[in-house]
Design goal:
mainly alpha, Arc Repressor Mutant, subunit A, Tetracycline Repressor, domain 2, 2 domains, 10 helices, about 0% strand, elongated
């Protein structure tokens, strides 16, 4: 299948799954949204299940790519961490991210692989990305971090705590992303700044 058709299929599938959920989506609706025949759809993916898993993987890849963009070359660790925290917050404020998470939660009862793909391509990968940044700051002497992966998980939690659950439940309070990232970084530096060790 031509790459443009693959893109059309994934785009159509994403639209339908995020709108109707895994169980509500049909192959017919996906083919119609993608403007391809069902035969073309099945060339790309032999079942609705595998198509959904492809969408989850592709969306997690897209979001991880945004987190992985190079950070500014600021020598001040606070500036680097606030930029990174801001990316985490913007991810949680991304409507497609929330729809994807809701759809995965709804799908795992019948398609447990969706949860594993989401966790590996999403949160676990994000933790590794943040861990690499923290390791660099530790190596430079800007932070004192003994367990980088644990610290990365704490950093992500501090960044999105208080945002993700209201977003999932559609009870969004107004979020000032800049203030949220400053609070997260302040709390993180209270633990991991070399002067506090």
């Amino acid at each position: 299948m031509r790459q443009s058709k693959v893109t059309d299929v994934l785009s159509g599938a994403k639209t339908v799954f995020l709108k109707l959920g895994f169980e509500g989506a049909s192959v017919d609706a996906i083919a119609e949204e993608a403007k391809v025949s069902k035969a073309t759809l099945y060339v790309h993916s032999p079942s609705k299940n595998t198509l959904f898993l492809s969408v989850v993987q592709a969306e997690c890849d897209r979001l991880s790519a945004e987190i992985s963009l190079p950070l500014s070359n600021d020598d001040e660790p606070r500036a680097v961490l606030e930029e990174l925290s801001g990316r985490m917050i913007r991810l949680v404020l991304d409507d497609d991210y929330i729809r994807l998470l809701r759809t995965c939660i709804g799908a795992v009862a019948v398609l447990p692989e969706a949860g594993e793909i989401y966790m590996e391509a999403g949160p676990r990968r994000a933790t590794r990305i943040v861990g690499q940044v923290l390791q660099g700051l530790h190596n430079a002497g800007s932070l004192k971090v003994h367990d980088v992966q644990s610290a990365a998980g704490q950093f992500i939690h501090l960044s999105v705590s208080g945002i993700i659950m209201p977003r999932l439940l559609s009870v969004d309070p107004p979020i000032d992303a800049s203030e949220q990232s400053k609070r997260a970084v302040n709390a993180f530096l209270e633990i991991y700044s070399p002067r506090h060790v």
